[in-house]
Amino acid sequence: MEQQLLDFASDDALAGFRLHTLEVYNWGTFHKQVWRLDLDSRNSLLTGDIGSGKSTLVDAVTTLVVPAHRVAYNKAAGADTKERSLRSYVLGYYKSERSTTGHAAKSVSLRDHNSFSVILGVFKNAGYLQKVTLAQVFWIKEAQAPPERFYVVADEALSITGHFSGFGTDIGQLKKRLKKMKDVAVFDTFPKYGAAFRRRFGIDNEQALALFHQTVSMKSVGNLTDFVREHMLEPFDVTPRINALLHHFDDLNRAHAAVLKAKQQIERLTPLVADCDTHTQLEKEVGQLRECREALAPFFAVHKKKLLKKRMANLTDEQTRLTRKAKALESEHKEQMARRDDIRQAIAENGGDRLERLRADIKRFTDQKHKRQAQAQRYADLAQDLSFKPVHTRTDFDDNAAAIQNRQQALRKKQADLLNLRTEVSMTFRDLKTDHDELTKELASLSARKSNIHARQISIRQTLCRYLDIDETNLPFAGELIQVREDQSPWEGAAERLLHNFALSLLVPESHYRAVAAWVNNTFLQARLVYYLVRPAPQKKSVDLHPDSLVKKLAVKPENKCYEWLEQELATRFNYACCTDMQRFQQEPWAITEKGQIKSGGQRHEKDDRRDLTDRSQYVLGWTNEAKIRTLKKQHRILEEQMQTTGNDISRLESRQNTSKNSYPT
After folding, report:
1. Is 108 found in the same domain as 41?
2. Angstrom distance (rounded) from CA 417 to CA 423
3. Which of 56, 387, 409, 582 could be cross-linked to 28 through a Cys-Cys bond (beta carbons 3.0 to 4.6 Å apart)?
4. Smallest Cα–Cα separation from 73: which of 89, 90, 92?
5. What is the DSSP secondary structure assignment for residue 419, as one 8-state letter?
6. Coil, strand or helix: which one is 219?
7. How far is CA 130 from the centre of its chain?
8. pLDDT given at position 520
9. pLDDT reported for residue 34
10. Which strands make up the sheet holding 604-606, listed edge to edge?
11. pTM for this entry
């Protein structure tokens, strides 16, 4: 609240904010009623016998304005710092009595933990007609717990009877009622409360309150100089200035070194400048010569143009001469064509047309004869190549035609069989190549990391972390943190089979859960992804593990954030008894054998032998992958050999197809 502009006080005797009224309820031995101390903003002398409550009231005022971690209760009475505490004031400890067993004394209180306490001070500034109320309310939630409190600052005069009573047993109701009041502020922490009342009182520095606390509780001053330096002067830290001086010296030293370096560079570059001038002169000469060379093209083009014009004129004259000659020859050709037609007509009139027809028939039949002889010879050559009998009669020709048809059908069937076989081998080669490519990618992925998780799952995590800007180590797969202990290697295959799906699960801390869930929901993964929300366990649940539990054969990677959650999850979900004989396997409700047979809940049995139990290429547990890489490299070599063999088979089939096609009769 802003202060008034005018000071209405007649003198400065009551200048500034002064304690006007102090009220306490259930504070120390002030019990069951509101105790009020009217100071009327004046200097007051508080006297009484030892134990009458003087220090209790002083501690109430101190509690109102000094942070809890700085308050030393009953210090004004010269008592030990542990003699009184906030709990002793709230419960009203008034004496100590020894127990019947004769052991240590026990404090006796006026109140139990179901009561509450209030301290309230009204401060008045007579000059500006202002009143400010500071109050604190204390209560105890549990019998052995420290007191809870909240703070109140009001720009008007409040009282315990009028404003801090009649709310029942729920402190929350009192808090709500105060928050609804005008010009009343309620705080849960002292820093905000302290800032609020210091702003109203015009106190700029917390050191003034520390000085107030020291003077209120001061019995004697040992060294006045130390007291003034510690409590009345602002601290002066010389370290930053020394550091600044050192940094300034370092800057000057670096600048001096830079100047020396620049001088050395200038000395070294001076000869280079002369070389640069020489280089510039040479470049200029080269440019002039290049311009001369480029000018040769238009020079020769001009001379070539003159020569071409002269040649065009000569060619034009030659064209005119040849045109005249062509016209003369054309006239002569027309005259001779007319003479030829006259001669033909004369021959036809004298029987010449019959001779022409006979000549044409002779030529036509002669051509047919040669053509048929050539076809007969070709047929004879082909028949000999195909081991057919020579043709002398129509019957021989028909027999050969039937044999050719039978051989065509056999060759068509052979070609179809070869085509089907080649298709099957090609499909096999394609499958081998697909497996080979996938194995190559998997080996490349494993070589770049330490875990055994499949490359497809790693790719999904990489995409997720790159999109959300999260370090991959913060989103581990369960399999990256679990492995079978070295001394339990016979159970490695069974453990891999039981934990396979869980090992491929992503572990998501609570801090990244919202972002990961939204990304997974909005992304088409083209694969299956399982992830768990990992919350920090408030209290570790104890699980009774079977003496031969599979969990005891596992090791969890130390120093990871999911360690406790993972241990709890393994103990809860995979507490399977490891059985080496079938009689015990049949007796246990949750059991597993070295061969990979799993029994769950006493009824469900499962054994998945689609893959070999010892096939390390499918292992996903562990934080080292050397063994898996060796296995995959061996499979990679086997696939390459199979691809080479299949490729050779395809080449042989293609050769047989070509041979069959060439031997096909047409």
Report:
1. yes
2. 10
3. 56
4. 89
5. H
6. coil
7. 59
8. 93
9. 85
10. 577-579, 591-593, 598-600, 604-606
11. 0.39
Is the same domain home to 483 and 542?
yes
The tokens for 71 are 């308050």
CA distance 438 to 445: 11
3-state secondary structure labels for all residues of 331-397: HHHHHHHHHHHHHHHHHHHCCHHHHHHHHHHHHHHHHHHHHHHHHHHHHHHHHHHCCCCCCCCHHHH
Please count the other Cβ atoms lying within 10 Å of the Cβ belonging to residue 77: 17
The CATH number of residue 134's host domain is 3.40.1140.10
Burial of 575 (0-12, 13-18, 19+ CB in 10 A): middle
Between CA 186 and CA 372 the distance in angstroms is 124
How many residues make up the chain in this entry?
666
- Count of other CB atoms within 10 angstroms of residue 53: 18
Please write the tens of the pLDDT for every residue from 587-632: 899 999 988 899 898 899 998 888 888 888 788 888 887 877 888 7
Q: Domain limits at 288?
A: 239-350
d(CA 569, CA 556): 11
By C-alpha distance, which of 37, 1, 45 is closest to 20? 37
Q: Which two tokens stand for residue 487?
A: 């001394």
Distance of alpha carbon 386 from alpha carbon 389, whole angstroms: 9
Q: Of 18, 35, 158, 41, whose CA–CA distance to 89 is shortest?
A: 35
Count of domains for the chain? 3
Q: Is residue 656 part of a domain?
A: no
Average confidence (pLDDT) over 507-512:
91
CA distance 193 to 178: 15
CA angle 18–23–26, rounded 5-degree value = 150
Residue 370: inside a domain = no
The SS3 assignment for 601 reads coil
Same domain membership, residue 244 and residue 223: no
Closest by CA position to 89, among listed 69, 109, 106? 109
DSSP 238: -
8 A C-beta contact, residue 504 and residue 482 = no
